[in-house]
Every structure is written in structure tokens, then in C-alpha cells.
């Protein structure tokens, strides 16, 4: 797939500027990362973007208020990524809003199209260390996802989910859910 020249120039400007601030230590690094991301992201209202966060297709990403994105998170805005207010994303998480089609065995995978799907985290979601969220997933308000989980399906509000693939083990606000986590 070919993109217009302006797209390549914008990407070059983003990766150059963001590369200068990506690994700066907090708190000054947080401020510089926010400033660069503010120029390129669709919308960003939180400055707590920690060092080592990788960003692809920033124009497809929206980050709400009072969000913390910790070290070494991967944000992919190709299919769209929306992180609601008051979310916490632990280190090492990945948001993968695209994947490859591989239906035609006679065509190399890299030459086949991509499938994209918007990822949405509603308000007050907490993702533990190393969570992977795949394309098209909608995580409802107040969900908690345990470390290392791979979220392949939507999670209803206030769910507690763990595992690979992630499965719901409880609901926030109930005694049995707290014990299950």
C-alpha cells in the first residue's frame, strides 16, 4: 500500500521528534513526550506517558484525562485506539489495532492486506503488566485485567478478567469477585 508523500513526511517528523524524547526520565521526560504527542495525536489530555512508550500511527489515538501509560507500552493507532479518563496501563502492555490477513497461501503474508479494528477502553480501566489487547476489542468501564492476559473479546463494565485468552472471573464490587482475583 502506498501513502501520499505528506503522510511519509509527517511520519518522519513524528518519529524524529518523538525519538528525541522517548527515553527521557520523568518528570521532565513526561512533559516533553506530552508536548510532542500533542502535536501528532488525534487527542491527548494526560501528560503521564512514561519513558520507552512506543507509538505507531499517533493520528488514530485518543487519550483521556488522568491516564497513566507506564514504561514500554506499545500504542498502535492504525485501526484506532481510545483510552478513556482515569485509566491505568501498567508497563509492557500492547494495544494491537491491526493484524495481517493470511487467507491466500500463495501470497506472502506481508503482501496481503491488513485488518484493522478500533480498540476502546472506557473510563477507569486498569490493565496489569504485560496485557495484550487485540483489534476491535471494547473494554467496559471499571474493568480490571490481570497481568499477562490477552484480551481477544469485549469485556462488559466492571469485569475482572485474567488469562490467555482473557476470561471473566468476577465483577468488581462483589465479595466473591475480589476473592477470585
Notes on the protein architecture:
- Keywords: Acyltransferase, Transferase.
- GO terms for molecular function: acyltransferase activity.
- This is Acyltransferase.
- By secondary structure, the protein is of the alpha/beta class.
- 20% of the residues lie in helices and 29% in strands.
- It has helices at residues 5-21, 28-40, 175-180; strands at 43-44, 48-49, 54-56, 61-63, 68-69, 74-76, 81-83, 88-89, 94-96, 98-100, 114-116, 119-121, 126-127, 132-134, 138-139, 144-145, 150-151, 159-162, 167-171.
- The strands form 4 sheets. It has a 7-stranded mixed beta sheet with strand order 2-5-8-13-16-18-19. A 5-stranded parallel beta sheet has the order 1-4-7-12-15, with helices on one face.
- A hairpin with a 4-residue loop joins strand 18 (159-162) and strand 19.
- The model has no long low-confidence stretch (mean pLDDT 94).
Task: Write a concise keyword list for the protein shown above.
UDP N-Acetylglucosamine Acyltransferase, domain 1, Acyltransferase, seven-stranded mixed β-sheet, single chain, five-stranded parallel β-sheet, 181 residues, 19 strands, 3 helices, acyltransferase activity, alpha/beta
Given the helix and strand composition, which structural class is it? alpha/beta
How many beta strands in the DSSP annotation? 19
Query: How would a textbook summarize the main sheet?
Result: 7 strands, mixed
What quaternary form is this? single chain
Radius of gyration, Cα only, in angstroms? 17 Å
Query: How much helicity do the residues have?
Result: 10-25%
Keywords: Acyltransferase, Transferase
GO molecular function: acyltransferase activity
Protein name: Acyltransferase
Organism: Luteimonas marina
Amino acid at each position: 500500500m502506498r501513502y501520499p508523500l505528506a503522510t511519509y513526511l509527517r511520519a518522519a517528523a513524528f518519529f524524529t521528534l518523538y525519538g528525541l524524547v522517548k527515553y527521557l526520565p520523568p518528570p521532565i521526560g513526561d512533559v516533553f513526550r506530552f508536548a510532542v504527542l500533542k502535536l501528532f495525536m488525534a487527542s491527548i489530555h494526560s501528560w503521564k506517558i512514561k519513558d520507552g512508550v512506543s507509538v505507531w500511527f499517533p493520528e488514530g489515538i485518543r487519550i483521556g484525562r488522568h491516564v497513566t501509560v507506564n514504561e514500554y507500552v506499545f500504542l498502535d493507532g492504525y485501526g484506532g485506539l481510545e483510552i478513556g479518563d482515569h485509566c491505568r496501563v501498567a508497563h509492557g502492555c500492547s494495544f494491537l489495532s491491526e493484524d495481517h490477513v493470511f487467507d491466500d497461501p500463495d501470497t506472502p503474508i506481508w503482501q496481503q492486506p491488513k485488518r484493522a479494528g478500533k480498540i476502546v477502553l472506557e473510563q477507569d480501566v486498569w490493565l496489569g503488566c504485560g496485557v495484550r489487547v487485540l483489534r476491535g476489542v471494547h473494554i467496559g468501564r471499571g474493568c480490571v485485567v490481570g497481568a499477562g492476559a490477552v484480551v481477544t473479546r469485549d469485556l462488559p463494565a466492571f469485569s475482572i478478567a485474567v488469562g490467555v485468552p482473557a476470561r471473566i472471573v468476577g465483577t468488581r464490587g462483589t465479595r466473591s469477585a475480589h476473592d477470585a482475583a
